[in-house]
Design brief:
Layout (H helix, E strand, L loop, with lengths): L1 H16 L5 E5 L4 E4 L1 H7 L3 H4 L15 H8 L3 H4 L4 E8 L6 E13 L2 E10 L8 H24 L9 H14 L5 E4 L6 H10 L7 E6 L5 H13 L13 E7 L6 H12 L4 H6 L1 E6 L3 H6 L5 H7 L2 E4 L10 H13 L8 E2 L1 H9 L5 H15 L4 E2 L6 H12 L10 H19 L4 H8 L3 H11 L8
Amino acid sequence: MAKRASRKKIRFEAAINAVDSPVFLVDAQRRVVFLNEGCQTLTGWTLPEVVGSVCEFASSGDAGSIEALTGALCPPQETIDGEHRDVVRQFVHRTSGQTVSRMVHFYPLDTDGQADFVMGIVTEIPTRPTGADTRIVTQVHAELAALRHALRQRYGAGSILTKNVSMKRVIDQVEAARRSRATVHICGEKGTGKEHIARTIHYTSDLGQQAFVPIQCRLMPPRELHEAIRRLVEADWGERLPIAALQPGCVFLDDVDTLPRDVQQRLVDFVASPRGADFRKNVRLLSSSHVGLEVARTDERISDDFYYLVTSVQIELLPLRQRMDDLKILAQHFLEQRNHDRSKQVTGFSAEVWSQFEEYNWPGNLDELDEVIYEALCNSDGPVIRADHLPFRLRTGLDAQRLGPVSDGPIEALEPLLQRVERELIERALEQAKGNKTMAARLLKITRPSLYRRMETLGLSDSEEP
């Protein structure tokens, strides 16, 4: 059978090499076998450079990469399974960067009922529409490929995928930030991609060849956090390591609003001191929080000096529910990222899945979208993700949204309610701390002066500490 398949391949290579239209062959393992001259002209790649490359249904932001080509040549899973398919693909010329949309007709070439090879014939896109789900899949994939290529041309490899007007302003802020050494604070709900933005700023800046050093202020145990800041403050930032990738070029303080005030002051003093001159020269300070630092500043969780240190530039990221015009692009992006290294490629989502995605409010934002797509991909049994492949938690979340919150009777006036809750919390903290106001303030995660002011406002007695 192997000899028979090999003879068939040779015959087809000879036949398609004489055809002017772009034509190519891919084997059952999705390895590129042959490109005719028309296909080489269309893509800018030669046969020796491409043969043997494995095709994966994943678009690439780099027009000059082999992935950009193999993503366009990858046959749908239905064709691997023996069915003819016509799909729209985006082709980017390797040298000129010119992008064109073309229809690719995939035909299984079978031996004894098994598809040994897939032949692809590239033509102009016909005006007659194809089936609904296929049209959705191919349009979203083509749009993603075109958008990724356009953004990369403007912003480089760390592009942010968006069509949303507000998020395009974020891209402009990122572009401005990466060209400077200013401190940048990134604010957004959990899962909105704050660390991704920080890494984009760093890796596309002039310090991008050096290390990105994240410090998880909320998650690190207090002793480890203090030790990390101590090493940062006491390091010799004028010393240069022989390997640039090991030299810190960015320190990222994640959830910076949870950093203790004494640590904040230590950083402020260090950066402003003569010893901090090398740090200011060689390292950029980035930070993030779930809510704007103005709130933490008002609550006295961060000092004025520290606020001004970390907020030279402020970038606010929208939750996914406020950028639903990006939903399809982002979902397709996550799907194609997950396609890497999988034997079976999933090419898109059914219309019912898109409907449920658009109805859901995505409390976990981009991280939740990625996790849902990964679980659905694991549950899938075909080339398109269907509604029954979606994880149970998304379906229950949708049901909860439709039901809405349970009404508990008449609405209580807000101010008395807040005062009552605040009074109860302060009294519990004082009782647990046995009247020690310093310890009570620590339990409430506020400063001692703030505790005194709140007690005075609420009319709580200020007895002497034991």
